[in-house]
Each structure stands twice: as C-alpha cells, then as structure tokens.
Amino acid sequence: MASLINGYEYDIFISYRHKDNRYDRWVTEFVANLQKELDSTFKEEVSLYFDENLDDGLHESSDVDGSIKNKIKCLVFIPILSRTYCDPASFAWKHELLAFLDFAHNDPFGLKINDAHGNVSNRILPIKIHELESADTRLFEHEICGAIRSIDFAFKSLGVNRPLRAHEDEPHENQHHIFYRDQINKVANSVKAIITSMNQQPDNEEEEAPAPTVLLNGKQKIKSHRFIIAALSSFLLCSATFDISTLFRARSTSSEGSTNSHSIAVLPFDDMSKAKDQGYFCDGLGEEIVSLLTKIPELKVITLTSACSIEGKNADIRVSSETLSVAYILKGSVRKSGDKIRITVQLIRAHDGSHLWSETFNRTIEDVFAMEDDVAERVVRELNIKLLDRNYTTLLLKH
Prior knowledge:
- By secondary structure, this protein is of the alpha/beta class.
- The protein has helices spanning 26-39, 64-69, 91-106, 134-144, 180-199, 224-237, 241-250, 279-293, 304-307, 317-324, 368-388; strands spanning 10-15, 48-49, 74-81, 112-114, 120-122, 127-128, 151-152, 154-157, 160-163, 260-266, 270-271, 300-302, 326-337, 340-349, 354-364.
- The protein has two domains: 10-199, Toll/interleukin-1 receptor homology (TIR) domain (Rossmann fold, 3-Layer(aba) Sandwich), CATH 3.40.50.10140; 224-388, 3-Layer(aba) Sandwich (Rossmann fold).
C-alpha cells in the first residue's frame, strides 16, 4: 500500500526494540489497535510499516540499506520509548531513529511541520511505555534537538514501571491516571494532524514557506530539573519580545542580499561546564528561547532542529548565516559549578559576524525567580540601548 503523499514509502514507521515485544506482545497489540483507530480517523487507507520479526533487527549479513532505507521514507516515525530503546548500540537506534533523522533533515518537509493554526508538529511521535531514566531522556532529546513530547502508555505506581495494558479500563492505581483507549485515540489524532499539515503545504517550491517555528505544548507544570530549565530560559526573552519586532523593522541591512532581514536563528547553547553534563540544560534553554521568539509574527525564526546542523562554538557565523539564511544569530553558553551557574548570551549580525550585544549572568540555582526578574529586565534594557538607540525606562513583566 502506497503512502498518502507521493514519493514516500509508508505513512507510518513503527520503531521498537524487539525484546520489548517478547513478553506479552505489547507492541503487536498496540499496532493492531492503532490500525483500527486509524481506520476510524482517516477516510483513506493509511499504510504502516511494522516488523514483527522476533530478531532485534536484521542479521549482520543482511543488507541494511536495501531492507530498511526505503522503508524509513515515511511521513510519521513512531519510536516506542522503553527502558531498552535508548541504546546507541541497538539496531533500532542506529538504523531506524538516526536514519529517519538523516532522511528528515534532507527531506523537503523537514522534521517539523507547521499546521493551519500556527502550531508545530514533529514528525517523530514518541510513544513512551516506561518511565525513562534521566540519562536515556537526555540521550533521546539530544538526538532530536528538543524535549520529548510523547504520548504515554506507562503504568507507574509504587515499585511498578511497565506498559499500560489494553484492557486496564480503570487504572486507579496508575499515577498518570491515563486510559489506554484515550491514548490510542490521541496517537491517531496526532498522526492525522501531521499528515494533514503535510498535505496542505504549497506545491510551488518557489513560494516562500511559512516561517519554521517551535512552540511548547501548553503550559504544563515543570518539575525538578525541567522546571529549572524553563525558568532559567524564559527570563532571558520573555519580556524582550515586544521590542524585537521593532528592532527587525528598523535594522534592515542592504548587504544581506536575498536574506530575510526579519530573521534570526538561535544556535544551540554550548556546554562549557567542566563535566560536560549540561547538554540537556542547553537544549532546553535554546528551545525555550526559540519558542518565545516565534510569538513575534513579523519575525522568521529558524528552528532549533535546523540550527543543530551547524552547532558548535567554533562554527563560523557567516557560514552559519548562509546555511540558515538569516540576518541575525543569537548564541550563548552555559557553565555550571556546584550551585553556581553562568549564562552568556550574544546577539550577532550574521552577514559580517559583528557583535551587537552580549551579556553574562552569574547566579545561583536557588534564587531562580529573583534571577528571572533581574536578568529579563537587563536583557530588554540592553536591547533598547544597543540596538534601538534609545533608553529603556519602563518594564512590565508578565509571566
């Protein structure tokens, strides 16, 4: 069965560790139920690739390119995130997840799709069947250059961490209080939203596509280290957005040629910590900044996924600007030592690499709210003085 969009092998590709399907055939049951839900969601027939072979991937003598490469050419990639999936040595990780990321980055649609409502959907739709270890979460989010936005099927209670079964209609003991039938419906609806958005993309490649954006899914309460990430990042730009649109209207540079003068890329923040253990924090910080910038309708914001291709502290800014076709670049670094954290932010004119503004913020993790108010005010004041040639007088913080 062909894909709903010409040029693709399948609509959906299911990626999983086969060892997660040996005990009670959970993945097989999930796929069967998903296919039924897709039948009641789509008018058309949806094609889905699912390898039920008990062997964990192809044998070493098999031709990986010939067997998997074409099948990876799909619209939606669904990884079943388990306690065993995030293993860089596994077949599913190397030849499915990473292969799809490579394919999507070179695909005309890209990895993230803008829908008719201005929201963004990732073509990777994770299904989480266990509560993951923090190291696995960081590993997966590093590869996809963003936070995991999964649909959960995990049953979590005291001493229990397993997949939610299909017939647990009243999982009162489950800490997540989720229902299997509802989650299956969410998966089908998410698949439909992605494919519908891809079908609605303009056929004329010369027509300028909508500005790529990254948005957060709602305003969920963030716990522990994820709360710190959101708070530390939001103070950098939450109050600056009302003046940045004015900045890009006033600062058009003629030497930029065909580059959109109302455009900016946020490069992944560099982890400068001695232990090199702040990658998750850096990714979250960059994602939060991009999310806030995308609220400015006049501003074209290059997504974190695109920026990942040229990340690195030694990347040449002019090369980066040519790659991303932007007029301005925001970059930064994070250093952490004990309970001390140092965040450096730089705004750079892309075509000549000149620094328009930079600032370093030194704080402790414990006073995150005081840090948010202070640093946000200083960021906005500096943007006004350095870029708009006017003094900053009044700031109203809205959270």
